[in-house]
Amino acid sequence: MLPGDLLHLPDDASAAFAASVASLASRLGAAQAGSGPAVEVLEGAEPGTFTVTTPTGAGHGTAAVVRTSGSTGTPKRTALPAASLAASAAATRTYLGGDGHWLLALPLHYVAGLAVVSRALLGGTRLATLDLTRHFAPADFAAATESLRHAVGPSERLYTSLVPTQLTRLVQDPDPAVRSALLEYSAILVGGGRAPDATRAAAREAGLAVVLTYGSAETCGGCVYDGAALPGVSVRSVDGRLRLGGPMVAAGYLGDPERTAEHFVTDADAVRWYITDDLGQVSEDGTVSVSGRTDDVINTGGVKVSAQEVQRVIESVDGVQEAFVAGVAHRDWVETVAVALVVRPELRSTGPGPDLGPDADAELVRDIRAAVLTQLGRAAVPTIFSTESELPRLSNGKPDRVRIINRLRSAAGEVPVGQETSQD
Q1: Which domain holds residue 145?
Q2: What are the pLDDT digits (tens) for 344-400?
Q3: The CATH number of the domain where 309 resides is what?
């Protein structure tokens, strides 16, 4: 049904964006069918914009190439075979109980956005899009949802894919039209990071069909939903590091055979596995839990602390909207725990910020330290706080790790990355 059924947006600029999405959908559909070359979607110069190129060196059967790991500053070009995209879409369809019509709310140069287009193409369903050149607004989401529902009728399934920040803004919006729009969806896939406890609780209370996803570009997007591996997906924990296996696994990194060999293996049963940088476990009943990343372990005073676990505890404290935790250098302890903190708007006071400045509520900081001490022990208690009105983000909605860590290093008196002077 694509691209002609991609819904028209109300003004000329939005219509132009919709037309560019439709053009991409057409090219991606040809690549998936084997009648056209692979596509590589690159971020444009302006927010939300993108360009589509034909990647050189893509292997036979490759449908798309996506760039990954912008949050760590080390980009990789992941080659996604048409068969892998199809396997991913089929597994999602099976888990969700059937095909549905999709609202695109995520950038197309990231796998989560591209996967929405791919699922609509492979399912033969309608695709609506927000104008991603505009700042994400709950009112726009509600309007696009209403248009999509009107186009497909009252009984058809609607799906969308969001990052945690988008879901947080939607559940916090007081407009009844936004709440009604959220309830139209048979599934709201949420990935790209851990959703704050308060956001998850608000979504549950509202009766929203939120599905927490885990995966990456290397698996064509999410392949674990609400802790359960999708049909055809296998998950193992080897020395505490997660491996994801199945037909949705990517071919590797274009032009980087060394990194491909480090992260991709094929076993004796011809199952292809992606070796992630995530720490986690698989329980006896198959439930997958992610406890952090190999690069988010903080070594403080000889004790290893998971930044993700500290974040989880902090975000459970009343008054905290969002947190980002990392280790920064400490002359005595090797590293110390530092947190970039977003306080709920109603609790913010005025004044500039970092490192327990005037807008850092002293009582809230005491509550945070007490909660971390009780649940995780003294070594995990944060010593550096940087208060933010909102966390810096990449265009896909994920926290910009490099920028945030540089701010925390500045708050701790370190030289930010990229500003060091050579000691050679």
Answers
A1: 12-288
A2: 876 655 443 444 444 457 888 999 999 999 999 888 999 999 888 889 988 777 888
A3: 3.30.300.30
